C-alpha cells in the first residue's frame, strides 16, 4: 500500500491528518514505517524476485515487457510532476532546489570516489565509474519515497520530479572528469556525439517529455489519463520491482566475486552521506518536510539505468558488474527498506 | 552458377555501442548490413541473459556484413577503433555470393 491514490498528491495540506506515530519520538515512527514499508506489495515483490533469482528459479520477465514497464513508470511520474507544476506554477524555491540537485549530482561523485579509492581500495577507473552511479538518481527509489509520503499524508512539491530529471546527468560528467584527471590518469572517451547521446538518453527524454505534456495539459490531462497512469501504477510497479529483484539477484550471484567487503560497505555508507548533504541543502532552501525527504532520497539513490549505459560508452574499461551490483543489488534494497523511513523521520525533524 | 568470393564480417557488440558501429560502417562505405538481438550467452564475464534487462548497458547484438576482400582491411580498422576495448567479438569468414556488384 505504498502508492498514490489521488491526483493532487501534494496539493497544499499543511495540516494534513498524520498517523499518530509520526508525532512520536524518532525510534517509534522509524520502526513502524520501516515495518509498514517492508510488508508493502512492491517491496515484497522485489524480495520475491531476489529470492527467485538467488534460488536459480527460471522465473523471468521478457526483455520487451521490462523495457515497457520502465517506460511506463518514467512517463507516469513525469506526467504527474508536470501536472502538479501546472497547478502550482514556477517559484524561486523550484529554481533553488534544481540548483541544489545539480550541485549534489555533480559533487557526490567526488566524495564517492575519495571513499572508494582511499577506504575501499578500488582501482581508479572502476572507482570513477561507480562514483558516477552514486551522483545520479534512481527513479524507482524516488517513486517508492513519494508513495510512502502519500501514505503518511505528508505533502511534497510536484516539481521534485524536475529536480530528479536534472540530477540524472551531471554525475556522468563528474565521473568522466575524475577518470581523466586522476593521479592514474585513464582516458575517458568524449567523442563528438557523446553530449547528444547523454542529453537525449531515452529515459531522460521520456521523463522530461512526459513532464512537459503534464505541464501543458494540466488537470484536464490528468483527469483523462488517471485510470492508466495513476490507478494502474501500483500494479505495474510491482511487476517492475519483481524484475528488478530478479536482475539484482542475478547480479549478486555473479557479481559478489568482484566485490570486497569495504566496497560492499560503500553501498550502504554512501546513501547516508548523500542523504545528509541533501538534507543540509534542503534546510538552507527551507523546503517542507515532504520535499526534504524526497531530496534526501534523490541524494541517497544510485542510478542503474541511465548511468551504466553512459559508462559503457565513456569508460569501457570499467567493469559494469561492480557498479550494477552495488547500485541495484545493495543500495536499492537498502534505500527501499531502511533508507526511506529513516529519511522521512530525519526530514520531519529538520523541517520543523 | 558462377559464384564470387567475398568476406563476411560478423561483429558481436554491446547495445550501447551499436549505433556508433552502424554509423561508422555507413561512413566507411559498407553497402548493407543486418543486425539481430542476441537472447543469451556466455563470455569472459560469465553467463548473461537479455530477459528482464531495462537499460542500454545490458544486451548484445550481432551484426553481419559482406564486403569485397579489397575493402576488408579499411573496414576492420574502423571497426576496431570502436570495439577494441568493449565486450564483443569480431570474426571474418570466406563466403561466396551470386551478385558481386552488390558488395
From TrEMBL, chain B:
GO terms for biological process: regulation of nitrogen utilization. InterPro entries: N-reg_PII (IPR002187), N-reg_PII-like_a/b (IPR011322), N-reg_PII/ATP_PRibTrfase_C (IPR015867). This is Nitrogen regulatory protein P-II. In nitrogen-limiting conditions, when the ratio of Gln to 2-ketoglutarate decreases, P-II is uridylylated to P-II-UMP. P-II-UMP allows the deadenylation of glutamine synthetase (GS), thus activating the enzyme. Conversely, in nitrogen excess P-II is deuridylated and promotes the adenylation of GS. P-II indirectly controls the transcription of the GS gene (glnA). P-II prevents NR-II-catalyzed conversion of NR-I to NR-I-phosphate, the transcriptional activator of glnA. When P-II is uridylylated to P-II-UMP, these events are reversed. One of its GO terms (molecular function) is enzyme regulator activity. Pfam families: P-II. SUPFAM superfamilies: GlnB-like.
